[in-house]
Amino acid sequence: MSRLKSWAIPRTPVDKKSARLLTFASFAIPIFLWCLVSYTPFIWHPQVEVTQPGGVSYFREGTVVDKEVFQLEVDKKIAENPQIDMSTLPQGFPVNPVYLPAPHEVVTALYTAFTTPPKRNGEPWLHESLGHSISVIAWGFFWAMLFGVPLGILAGTYNAASHLIEPFTEFFRYLPAPAFGALAVAILGIYDAPKIAIIFIGTFFQMVLIVSTTTRKLNMALVEASLTLGCRGFRMIRRVILPGILPDLYRDMRILLGWAWTYLIVAELIGTSSGITWFITQQARYKNFDNVFAAILIIGLIGLITDILLAQIGKRLFPWHTGK
After folding, report:
1. Do 158 and 284 belong together in one domain?
2. Is residue 6 part of a domain?
3. C-alpha to C-alpha distance for 53 and 62, rounded to whole angstroms
4. 46, 90, 162, 206: least buried by Cβ within 10 Å?
5. Which residues pair with residue 47 across a beta bridge?
6. Where is the ABC transmembrane type-1 domain (predicted)?
7. 231, part of any domain
8. Using an 8 Å Cβ cutoff, are 262 and 141 in contact?
């Protein structure tokens, strides 16, 4: 009980056992709810999978129809012949819609998607599509960092630079990046360049503002001390400001990398469809929604694993910042 009370106190650290338990629960609860919906018929199974057509012309074994439609056909058969043998009526069992596969179907698809060759010659394997998507994210985020981090540091260090950089950046960050898709294709072609441009636009302007805010949080006493000692200009940024904000800057890049991933699907639809987006759209077209869920989970797993690795690297790079 005391442990539960400690959880309710704002900003109170939890012990390691509680942290592990809560982390497990954050994944277990959604999966449990998914299993309930998938495997418990009385919760939400709005359709019926036909096992016996029962003389209905458009019913086939394995056909999935709404419960209302199924029951209507059963009632019609009974109305036509009240003495009908019940075993000859249409038969079926409750199921969820095809777009909501059960967990075991998604897990199976997660495995087979990597081991099953593409249906058509020349189409990429799933791991090739993933590699292509990761390269788009990497290049878009690299260019955003190359320009966004220096501008953010300048805006956070000098008021003059802040007034020059931030007003337009504040305006531009409200413009949706996908709106520039047609323009990007017209200028950069139909292949990877416009996709990288959308990732860049989606992260660059946010990055400038976040980095400038992080830079302003640096203790002003350090800046004043460096000025007193004659450290100015680029030397001050390199020797004082950048080392001072580096742990927080690293954390900001981790957060913004996740932001870049959210633009991936939209970016890859621009020009020629490619990468993991191409795989998802193809599987949705054939109503293989177990593969669609598997691909979405893969994106989430890659993002989560990347973030965990970056967090561990950050602990080693900046041990003083984590309190170790």
Report:
1. yes
2. no
3. 9
4. 46
5. 66, 95
6. 130-310
7. yes
8. no
pLDDT digits (tens, 9 = 90+) for 256-275: 998 898 888 888 888 777 78
Q: In what order do the strands lie in the sheet with 47-52?
A: 64-66, 47-52, 91-95
CA 226 to chain centre: 42
Whether residues 129 and 64 fall in one domain: no
User: What pLDDT, on the 0 to 100 scale, is given for residue 89?
Assistant: 87
Answer for the pair 2, 61: CB distance below 8 angstroms, yes or no: no
Judge whether residue 318 has pLDDT over 70. yes
Give the burial class of 242: count Cβ atoms within 10 A of its Cβ; 0-12 exposed, 13-18 middle, 19 or more buried: middle
Kindly state whether residues 283 and 206 are assigned to the same domain: yes
Which 3 state secondary structure label does DSSP give 48? strand
Instruction: Convert the pLDDT of each residue in 211-264 to its tens digit.
Output: 999 999 888 887 778 878 777 778 888 888 888 889 999 999 999 998 898 888
Q: Is residue 201 part of a domain?
A: yes
Give a yes or no: residue 2 inside a domain.
no
Determine the longest span between alpha carbons in the chain, in angstroms.
Answer: 103
Closest CA to 209 of 147, 155, 142: 155
Q: Which amino acid is at 95?
A: V
91 lies in the same domain as 170: no
Q: What is the C-alpha separation between 161 and 47, in angstroms, rounded?
A: 61
Strand pairing class (91-95; 64-66): unpaired
Structural domain for 272, as ranges: 115-317
pLDDT tens digits, 184-197: 888 888 888 999 99
Looking at the structure of the chain, the number of domains it has is 2
Say if residue 195 is in the same domain as residue 91: no
Structural tokens at position 57: 């012309």
Tokens encoding 280? 């998802």
Tokens of 167: 């007003």
Q: Backbone dihedral region of 272: left (phi > 0), alpha (psi from -120 to 50 degrees) or beta?
A: beta
What pLDDT sits at residue 324? 44
pLDDT score at 322:
59
Q: Which two tokens stand for residue 89?
A: 């009526």
